[in-house]
Specification:
heterodimer; A: 407 residues; mainly alpha; 66% helix; globular; B: 1096 residues; two-stranded antiparallel sheet; 44 helices
C-alpha cells in the first residue's frame, strides 16, 4: 500500500503527470476515437517513446514510474479500442475511479485535503468532467461509426415533431429543481461552512489560494511572469473563446456529435481545456501546499518543507554558463538570444503557412489563419514553457527588468 | 370543447408523477431535517434540564410550605370568613339599608360633581370672554364682568354643595364597610399566607414542562416569546481584541450556566467550605445584626446541600466564592463583568466546543471527547461526554482551571496584590523576586521600577575569589540548593541526551571557556577597596545573634529540612520556606564564598559596599559584628570548593572570540586582532561578549553595562500571542531537572509552562550552531512554581479595559499601591504582617509574645510625622524594648519614606497632617479616664511612667503575657481617635493581639457591651464610684455612662492623651546614612503642658 501511494505521489508531480496526460490524450484520440492500431507507424512511435522513458528511468526513478504507467495506459487503451465507449466499460471506469477515491479517503493526508468542505465540490466536478466528456465522446464515436457505415447521426433520427412545454419541459424541470434542492439541503446540512479563525492582517494563511476557477491562473504563475500569466494569457483565452466562431467555419458536425468531422477543432479544444486548464486547476487545488510547494496526494502538507529554487534565465544560461562572460548591460544585447527564439517561434506561423499547412492557409484565408495560428501557438507556449522549466530549470526566456517585461 | 386525442408525451406520465410524489416527500423530510438541525441546540438541553431541576425544587418547597400547620390556618380563615358572612346575613336588613343609602348618596355625589365641573368649564369660558373684551376695548365689558361675577359666585356655591355631598357619601360608605370589615381582614390574612405559595406557583409555571411552554418554544414559533432563550450580557467597556479592532464583549455563558450567580446550587465541596466560612463569621460576630438572620438561613441551606443526595454538576453549579465573584453583591457582579474577562474563551459562542472550554487534565479531556446520545438524560449529563474536539481556530481558549486567576491581571496590574487572589499574588511576588522582569520587559506598573534581583558585581573582587565565582556560575545549585540564581551552563541543549558525543565534548570546552571569560572580565573590572578585618569574635554568640535579631526574616541558614510527615531529613527546596525568606541569600556556606573583612564591613554597613544594596543596617556594634562574622565564617562548604575546575582551552577561547570578531571584521583581520591580544585580553574580550550574550547585566550591576536593554523577549502582551507563533520545535516530552517526566501539549499554557520549567527543551533534536542555541537559563522551578509563573504570563494580554474599570486608579489607591511596592521591594513582610499577610520570621521565634508588630491597622493607627521619623531612624523610639528582633535602619530616601507614610495614611483613610495631636483634653474627662483606667486595671500591662522614647528601660520579660507599650509614647505615635477605637475592638484589628477585648460586641445590636455597667455597683468599685460621682448629675447618669462603651473609651483616650510625652528626638544620621545637614533652627511650637501623668 505504501508503495502504491508512493507510486501515485511520484506520478502526480507536475512534470510527470503532464507527460502522462498528454500521452493518454493522444492515445484516446488515436486508438479510441480514430480506430488506430498499435501495429502502425504511430503505434511503433508510441512504443519507442515508452521504451525511451523506461531507459532513462534507470537513472531518473520518476521517469521509470512514468514509463511504467505510460506502457500500461498504452497497451490498455490500444487493447480496448472502441470498446471503451461501451456503457459497461464506462460504468466500470466510473466504479474504479470512485473506488480509488474511496480507498484514498482512508489515507489521513488525502482526507485532510479532499474532504475539506471547500474542496468537496471541486472533487465532485472532476468526476462530472470525466463523465460528461466520456458521454460526449461516446456519442461522437457512435455517430462516426454509423456515418462510416453510411448512416446518419443519431440526433438526426429523432423526428422533427414539436413537443409541449408542459409537461415535457416544465414538469421535468420542476422535478429536477426538487431533486437539486434536496441535494443542496442535505449537502449544506452535512458539510457545513466552517467558522475558522479571526481575520488577522499580520498572519496570512499558508498557502494563500485563489478560488478554484482562478487556481489555473495561479498555477500558471509558477511558470510565467505575472503580466503574462495574469493579464495577457487570460485575456487571450477569453478573446480566443470569443473568436472561435469566426475561425472555425467548419460546417460539419453541426447539431450532432462527431469527432472525425471536427478532429482538429475538438482535439485542440479538448487538449487546451482538459490537459492544460483542468490539469492546472487540479494541481493548484490538491497538489500545491504550503509555500506553493508540490505535495503528492498522499503526502503530508509540511509547512517547513524547503525545496531550493534554482531557476535560471536563458540569458544567464547562454552568457554566464555557456560562454563564461558577464551579462551585457544593454538589454537588447543581453536578451538577444531569447528574443530571437521567441521571434522564431512566432515566425512558425508564416513558415508553416508557406509549407506544410498551406492548404489550411488557403482554405481559411489570411486573417483567419493567422489569428487562429497565433492563438494556437500561444496556447502551446504554455506546455512548452512548462517543459522547458522542468528540463532546464528555465525561469525566463526573455528577462527585461528595465521595462518589467519577461517571457 | 370538443374531446381531444390523447396528447403524446415524451416521458411516461405515471413515472413522472411517481417521481414527483417521491421527491416531494423527500423534500419535506429534508426540510424537516433542516429545521431540526437549526432548532435542536445544545443549550436548549441544558436549559430544559435546569428547568427540570428548578421545578423539582419548587415542588419540594411547595409541599414543605403546604404542611399541616399552614393548612390548618387556612382552614381556620375559611371558617372565619364563613362566620363573617353568616353575621352579615343576620343583620341583613341593616346592611341592605346602609347599602341603599350609600347608593343614593353615590348618585347625588355624581350629580353634584358633574354640576360643579360643568359650571367650572363655563366659568373659564366666561373669563376668556371678559378678558378678550377688556383687551379689545369692546363696549360690552361691563356686561361680561357682571356675567363673570355671577358665575363665580354660583361656582363657589356648587363647590360647597359638592363637599357636603361627598362628606355624606363617605359616611354612608363607612357604615357599609363596618359590615364588610371583618371579611376584608380575613381576606388579607389569607393573602399573606398564600403569598409565598402564589409566588412559587408563578415561578413553577415559568419552568415547568407545560403545554403552553411547549407551544411557546416550538420550532418556527419560538421567535414570539420563548421560555428557552439565549441569555447574554453586553459589556461595552471591556473589549475583545480582534486583530484590527476592539469589539465589546457579549458573554453568553449564562445561557447554559443558568445558576452561576444564584446561591443554592453549590457543589458539595463548595457548600461545605462556604458554610464553614460563614459560620466563622457568625461566631466571631463579624456580621451586622440586620444581616444575621439572612446569613444563618444561608448557612442552613448550604448544610442541606452538603447532606443532600446528589452533587450539583456543571453547568448548573453556582460559582465558587460567590461573594467575591459573580454574585450581585460582589465586586465582580455577573451583569457588570460577564465571564470571559476572567476566564477567556469565546464570548459569543453558544456551543460547548466553540466556547473554548479547556479540560483541566488529560483524563478530563478523554471523558469530554466521547459524544452524548442524541436525546440525553440526566445520567448522560453526569457522564460529561460532550463530544469535545480542540477548536484549532480559537485564538483565545479558556484558561485551564489552574490558571483561572491569570485573568486578574487585566484590571489589577496596577496593584501589588489582589484581594483573595492567593495564587496570583504568590505568582506575581515570585516573578518579582526571581526577577523575570529584569530580563523580560513587562510594561505594567506592577513590574516596572523594580530593583534588580541580583547583587551588584562591581566590587566582586573584594567579596569573593575567582575560584568560587567559576564554580558558582557553573552550577549555582551545587552550592545553594535554594538559590534564585539560575543555571546558564551545561544545560540539556549543550550536554543533554540528544547531543552527539563529539558535539558534547566541544560544547563543554566552549562553556568552560565562556565561564572563565566571564569570571576574568568581572574580576578585572572590579573595584579593589580595602576592608578592615574584625578582631576576635565569638561564633556561638554570633549564631545566637543571627537567630534572634531578625536576620532570619530575610535569610535562611539551612540546607536541609526535616520532612514533617516522614521525619526524613532531605535537601531543602525553595518551596519549604516562605518567599520573604528568599529575599536575602541562604547563609550556609558563606564562609567558603567570602572573607571575614568583607562580611564584617557588610553587616555593619551594607551601603558602604553598594549604595543600592537592599540589605538594611541592624545597627550592630563592633563586637556584635565581629561575633556574627565569626559565625558566618564558620559556615563552610569545603566540598564545593574542591570540585574540579577545568582550565580554559586556549583554542576554545580563540574560536569563540573569533566568532564575535567576524561579525564586524573579515576572517583575516579577526585572526590578526586575536594574535595581537594576550590570553588574558582574549578572555576579557570574550567575557564581555558572553555577558552581553547571556544578559548577566539584566540582573546584576556590572561595570561597563549601564543602560543596556534587557535581553529577553518582551512579555507585556505575551498572553495574547497566538499559538502558531510559539516554536515547539521537536519536543514532545522531557524529563525535568527534578526527574519528573513531563508531557508537552500543543497549547500556549503548556508551552509557557515547559519553557519556564526546562527552557532549553525546545532545542532538542535541532541542528543549530553554538551561538544560535537557546540561552534562557534554568531556574529549577518546581511544578507548582512553574504553574504560578505561567499564570502570570498568560495573564499579560493586550485586551483593553476601559479606564473606569481598572482597579485602584484613584489617587488614594495609587498612594496605597506605591507604598505596597516599597513594602514588597524592601521585604517588610519578612518580619511584619502587612495588610493581613506576612511575618515570615514568625516560625523562627519561639515565643509569640516577642513577634514584630502587625502593621495591618498602621495607617489608621500611626501619626504620619512620627512614622516618617521612625522609618528614617528607628532609634527615635523604642516602643517594644523587650523584643530581640530589631527594626533595621533601611536608609530610606526622603522620597521613599514619604511614599510609605502617605501610603499608610491613605490605607487608613486618614490625613497625613492633623491637628488632633495638639488637642488638650478637658480636665474632667482626664479625671474620669483615670478612674476607668484603674477600674479596668490597664496598669497590669501598660506603664504610664514617662520614659526617654529612644532609651526606655527594659521591662521584666519573665511575664511575657504582660508586655505592652508604654502609654506615655502614645501621644507622639498614635492617632487621637484611633486609640478609643482600638480599646473597643482590638481583636478585630489584630486577630492575635494580646490586648484583651474589654468591650465585647453585642451580637444583637452590633454595639459594644461595657463590663463596668454592672461592675460599678459592686463593693470593690465603691471607691471609684465615689470618686466619679461628683462629675455626674446623678447616679443614673453615672450608671448610664458606665454602660456606654464609646463614652468610656473616649475618657480613657483623653486620660492617655494627657499623660503623653510631647517631644522626641529628631531622626538622626544613624550609623549608615550621612548626617543630615543642620536645618534652620525654628523652635517647635510651644506645646501646652498638661497635668503630669502618675501624679495620683
Amino acid at each position: 500500500m505504501t508503495f502504491l501511494k508512493n507510486f501515485v505521489n511520484v506520478l502526480s508531480v507536475a512534470s510527470i503527470s503532464f507527460i502522462l496526460l498528454t500521452a493518454i490524450f493522444t492515445f484516446i484520440v488515436y486508438f479510441n476515437l480514430l480506430d488506430g492500431r498499435i501495429k502502425s507507424k504511430a503505434g511503433i512511435g508510441f512504443i519507442a517513446f515508452g521504451i525511451f522513458l523506461l531507459v532513462t528511468g534507470i537513472w531518473v526513478t520518476p521517469l521509470l514510474y512514468c514509463g511504467i504507467a505510460y506502457m500500461l495506459c498504452l497497451f490498455g487503451l490500444s487493447k480496448l479500442g472502441p470498446r471503451i465507449w461501451e456503457p459497461k466499460i464506462g460504468m466500470w471506469m466510473l466504479i474504479l475511479g470512485g473506488g480509488a477515491f474511496g480507498l484514498s479517503i482512508l489515507d489521513p493526508n488525502f482526507k485532510l485535503i479532499a474532504a475539506k468542505p471547500d474542496n468537496v465540490p471541486i472533487a465532485a466536478m472532476i468526476f462530472l468532467l470525466g463523465i460528461f466528456t466520456w458521454i460526449a465522446l461516446r456519442r461522437a464515436y457512435v455517430n462516426d461509426h454509423q456515418m462510416a457505415l453510411g448512416g446518419i447521426p443519431y440526433e438526426k433520427t429523432e423526428s422533427d415533431e414539436k413537443l409541449f412545454t408542459w409537461p415535457d419541459l416544465v414538469y421535468t424541470e420542476m422535478l429536477c429543481m426538487i431533486a437539486l434542492t434536496i441535494v443542496m439541503i442535505v449537502w449544506s446540512v452535512g458539510l457545513r461552512a466552517p467558522l475558522e479563525e479571526a481575520a488577522n492582517p499580520t498572519s496570512s494563511p499558508n498557502p494563500a489560494k485563489a478560488p478554484w476557477y482562478f487556481l489555473g491562473l495561479q498555477e500558471m504563475l509558477v511558470y510565467f511572469d505575472p503580466w503574462l500569466a495574469g493579464v495577457v494569457l487570460p485575456t487571450l483565452i477569453i478573446v480566443g473563446l470569443m473568436a472561435i466562431p469566426y475561425i472555425d467555419t467548419n460546417p460539419r458536425g453541426n447539431g450532432y456529435y462527431s469527432f472525425r468531422e471536427r478532429k482538429w477543432e475538438i482535439g485542440i479544444f479538448l487538449y487546451g481545456f482538459l490537459v492544460l486548464w483542468s490539469f492546472l486547476i487540479i494541481t493548484g487545488t490538491f497538489l500545491r501546499g504550503p509555500n506553493w510547494n508540490f505535495f503528492g496526494p498522499y503526502e503530508y502538507w509540511d509547512p517547513n518543507k524547503l525545496e531550493p529554487l534554482v531557476n535560471i534565465d536563458l540569458s544567464e544560461l547562454i552568457w554566464v554558463k555557456a560562454m563564461s562572460m558577464p551579462l551585457p548591460k544593454l538589454w537588447i544585447i543581453r536578451e538577444a538570444p531569447g528574443l530571437i527564439l521567441v521571434l522564431a517561434y512566432l515566425g512558425l506561423a508564416p513558415a508553416l503557412a508557406a509549407g506544410p499547412l498551406r492548404r489550411f492557409y488557403l482554405k481559411m484565408g489570411g486573417p483567419r489563419y493567422y489569428v487562429g495560428a497565433y492563438l494556437f501557438l500561444i496556447m502551446l507556449a504554455l506546455p512548452i514553457k512548462m517543459v522547458l522549466r522542468w528540463l532546464f530549470n528555465l525561469k525566463y526566456i526573455v528577462h527585461i527588468q528595465e521595462i518589467f517585461f519577461n517571457i | 370543447m370538443k374531446p381531444q386525442e390523447p396528447i403524446p408525451h415524451n416521458y411516461p406520465m405515471r413515472k413522472l408523477n411517481l417521481i414527483f410524489a417521491l421527491t416531494s416527500l423527500g423534500l419535506l423530510a429534508v426540510t424537516g431535517v433542516m429545521v431540526m438541525y437549526d432548532y435542536v441546540r445544545g443549550w436548549k438541553w441544558f436549559q430544559l434540564e435546569f428547568n427540570r431541576i428548578q421545578a423539582e425544587r419548587i415542588q419540594q418547597e411547595l409541599t414543605s410550605k403546604n404542611d399541616a400547620e399552614t393548612r390548618k390556618r387556612l382552614a381556620g380563615i375559611e371558617r372565619d370568613m364563613k362566620a363573617g358572612q353568616v353575621e352579615i346575613a343576620r343583620n341583613r336588613n341593616a346592611y341592605l339599608e346602609a347599602q341603599k343609602a350609600l347608593d343614593e348618596w353615590e348618585g347625588k355625589h355624581y350629580a353634584a360633581d358633574q354640576n360643579y365641573r360643568f359650571a367650572k368649564a363655563v366659568l373659564d369660558a366666561k373669563r376668556y370672554e371678559l378678558e378678550a373684551a377688556t383687551v379689545q376695548h369692546r363696549h360690552d365689558v361691563k356686561e361680561r364682568q357682571r356675567e363673570y361675577d355671577t358665575r363665580n359666585a354660583h361656582l363657589a356655591q356648587l363647590n360647597l354643595t359638592l363637599q357636603e355631598v361627598t362628606r355624606n357619601r363617605d359616611a354612608a360608605r363607612a357604615r357599609v364597610d363596618t359590615f364588610l370589615k371583618r371579611i376584608k381582614q380575613l381576606e388579607d390574612q389569607k393573602k399573606d399566607l398564600t403569598a409565598n405559595a402564589d409566588l412559587l406557583n408563578k415561578q413553577l409555571r415559568g419552568v415547568a414542562m407545560s403545554s403552553d411552554n411547549m407551544i411557546l418554544n416550538a420550532p418556527m414559533l419560538d421567535f414570539i416569546n420563548p421560555t428557552l432563550k439565549i441569555d447574554q450580557v453586553v459589556l461595552n467597556d471591556l473589549f475583545i481584541e480582534m486583530n484590527y479592532m476592539s469589539v465589546p464583549r457579549v458573554d453568553r455563558c449564562m445561557t447554559c450556566h443558568r445558576a452561576i450567580d444564584r446561591p443554592g446550587f453549590e457543589s458539595k465541596k463548595e457548600a461545605e467550605r462556604l458554610a464553614a466560612e460563614l459560620q466563622t463569621k457568625l461566631d466571631r460576630n463579624l456580621v451586622q445584626p440586620s444581616k444575621r438572620a439572612e446569613m444563618e438561613a444561608r448557612v442552613a441551606a448550604l448544610r442541606r446541600i452538603v447532606d443532600g443526595p446528589r452533587d450539583m454538576m456543571n453547568p448548573f453549579r453556582t460559582h465558587p466564592k460567590l461573594d467575591t465573584f459573580v454574585g450581585s453583591s460582589s465586586p465582580h457582579p455577573l451583569l457588570e463583568m460577564g465571564c470571559t474577562v476572567c476566564h477567556r474563551g469565546q464570548d459569543r459562542a453558544t456551543e460547548f466546543g466553540r466556547a473554548g472550554h479547556t479540560p483541566m487534565s488529560l483524563r478530563m479531556e478523554q471523558r469530554w471527547k466521547k459524544s452524548m446520545p442524541f436525546f440525553p438524560s440526566v445520567k448522560d449529563y453526569e457522564k460529561r461526554n460532550w463530544g469535545y474536539e480542540v477548536n484549532p481556530f480559537l485564538d483565545t481558549p479558556m484558561y485551564p482551571r489552574e490558571h483561572s486567576e491569570a485573568g486578574c491581571l487585566k484590571c489589577h496590574s496596577g496593584q501589588m496584590e489582589v484581594g483573595e487572589g492567593e495564587k496570583i499574588n504568590k505568582a506575581t511576588h515570585m516573578v518579582e523576586l526571581y526577577g523575570c522582569h529584569a530580563c523580560h520587559k513587562i510594561s505594567n506598573w506592577r513590574f516596572t521600577d523594580l530593583q534588580k534581583p541580583g547583587p551588584s558585581l562591581e566590587g566582586i573582587a573584594e567579596k569573593t575569589t575567582p575560584a568560587f565565582a567559576f564554580r558558582w556560575i557553573a552550577n549555582p545549585t551545587h552550592f545553594r540548593p535554594t538559590t534564585r540564581m539560575p543555571s546558564f551552563f551545561y544545560q540539556r541543549n549543550m550536554i543533554g541526551p540528544d547531543v552527539s558525543a563529539s558535539e558534547r565534548a566541544q560544547n563543554i570546552k566552549y562553556q568552560d571557556a565562556e565561564i572563565h571569560a566571564i569570571v576574568t572580565y568581572l574580576f578585572s573590572k572590579s573595584t579593589h577597596r580595602a576592608w578592615s578585618a574584625p578582631t576576635g569574635g565569638d561564633a556561638a554568640r554570633g549564631k545566637e545573634l543571627v537567630n534572634s535579631i531578625g536576620c532570619m526574616g530575610c535569610h535562611i541558614a539551612q540546607d536541609t529540612v526535616k520532612d514533617e510527615k516522614t521525619g526524613v531529613v532531605r535537601v531543602a527546596k525553595r518551596d519549604d520556606f516562605p518567599l520573604e525568606r528568599h529575599f536575602g541569600f541562604n547563609l550556609t556556606g558563606v564562609g567558603s564564598k567570602t572573607n571575614p573583612a568583607w562580611i564584617f564591613n557588610w553587616v555593619k554597613n551594607p551601603k558602604a559596599y553598594d549604595p543600592l544594596a537592599p540589605m538594611p543596617s541592624l545597627r550592630l556594634s563592633e563586637s556584635e559584628a565581629a561575633d556574627i562574622t565569626a559565625y558566618l565564617m564558620s559556615l563552610q562548604k569545603p566540598r564545593f570548593m574542591q570540585e574540579p575546575v577545568r582550565p580554559p582551552s586556549a583554542s576554545a577561547v580563540r574560536e569563540l572570540a573569533k566568532a564575535y570578531l567576524v561579525n564586524t571584521l573579515t576572517d583575516v583581520d579577526a585572526n590578526t586582532k586575536l594574535r595581537s591580544m594576550s590570553d588574558h585580553d582574549q578572555l576579557v574580550y570574550l567575557g564581555q561578549r558572553s555577558i552581553e550574550k547571556y544578559g548577566c547585566y539584566s540582573c546584576h550591576d556590572i561595570k561597563g553595562f549601564d543602560g543596556l536593554k534587557p535581553i529577553g523577549t518582551e512579555l507585556t502582551v505575551e498572553g495574547s500571542k497566538t499559538l502558531h507563533l510559539f516554536d515547539f520545535g521537536f519536543a514532545h516530552d522531557y524529563e525535568a531537572h527534578d526527574g519528573k517526566h513531563e508531557h508537552i501539549l500543543h497549547t500556549v499554557p503548556s508551552w509557557v509552562y515547559t519553557k519556564v520549567r526546562s527552557p532549553r527543551v525546545y532545542d532538542d533534536k535541532r541542528a543549530k550552531p553554538y551561538n544560535d542555541k537557546l540561552k534562557m537559563p534554568n531556574f529549577h522551578l518546581s511544578p507548582e512554581e512553574a504553574q504560578l509563573v505561567t499564570s502570570v504570563v498568560l495573564g499579560l494580554t493586550k485586551e483593553k479595559v476601559s479606564e473606569n474599570r481598572l482597579a485602584s486608579r484613584d489617587a488614594r489607591h495609587r498612594a496605597v499601591e506605591e507604598m505596597r511596592k516599597i513594602v514588597s521591594q524592601r521585604n517588610c513582610r519578612a518580619c511584619h504582617v502587612v495588610n493581613r499577610a506576612g511575618r515570615a520570621i514568625g516560625p523562627m521565634i519561639a515565643d509569640t509574645n516577642f513577634l514584630p508588630p502587625d502593621l495591618t491597622p498602621q495607617g489608621g493607627r500611626a501619626q504620619s510625622p512620627w512614622l516618617f521619623s521612625f522609618l528614617k531612624d528607628p532609634t527615635v523610639m523604642k516602643i517594644r524594648p523587650w523584643m530581640n528582633v530589631r527594626m533595621p535602619t533601611f536608609g530610606f530616601s526622603d522620597h521613599e519614606a514619604a511614599t510609605i507614610v502617605s501610603g499608610f495614611a491613605a490605607e487608613g483613610n486618614e490625613p497625613q497632617f492633623e491637628t488632633m495631636r495638639y488637642e488638650i483634653p478637658p480636665q474632667q474627662n482626664v479625671a474620669i479616664g483615670r478612674e476607668v483606667y484603674a477600674m479596668l486595671r490597664c496598669a497590669q500591662c501598660h506603664s504610664t511612667t514617662p520614659v526617654d522614647p529612644a532609651n526606655p528601660p527594659l521591662p521584666n520579660v519573665a511575664d511575657a503575657q504582660s508586655l505592652a507599650p508604654n502609654l506615655t509614647l502614645s501621644k507622639l505615635r498614635l492617632r487621637h481617635d484611633w486609640i478609643a477605637d482600638w480599646i473597643r475592638r482590638p481583636g478585630e484589628m489584630i486577630p492575635d493581639t494580646r490586648m484583651p477585648a474589654n468591650f465585647p460586641r453585642d451580637p444583637e445590636t452590633g454595639g459594644f457591651r461595657s463590663p463596668l455597667a454592672g461592675a460599678i455597683d459592686t463593693p470593690q468599685f465603691a471607691g471609684h464610684k465615689a470618686a466619679l460621682l461628683p462629675y455626674f448629675a446623678n447616679e443614673e447618669a453615672l450608671r448610664k455612662t458606665m454602660g456606654d462603651a464609646v463614652a468610656l473609651t473616649n475618657y480613657l483616650r483623653d486620660y492617655i492623651w494627657s499623660v503623653g510625652l510631647n517631644q522626641m528626638r529628631n531622626p538622626g544620621a544613624g550609623p549608615v546614612t550621612p548626617a543630615p545637614q543642620p536645618q534652620p533652627v525654628t523652635p517647635p511650637a510651644p506645646v501646652q503642658q498638661t497635668a503630669r501623668a502618675g501624679s495620683r
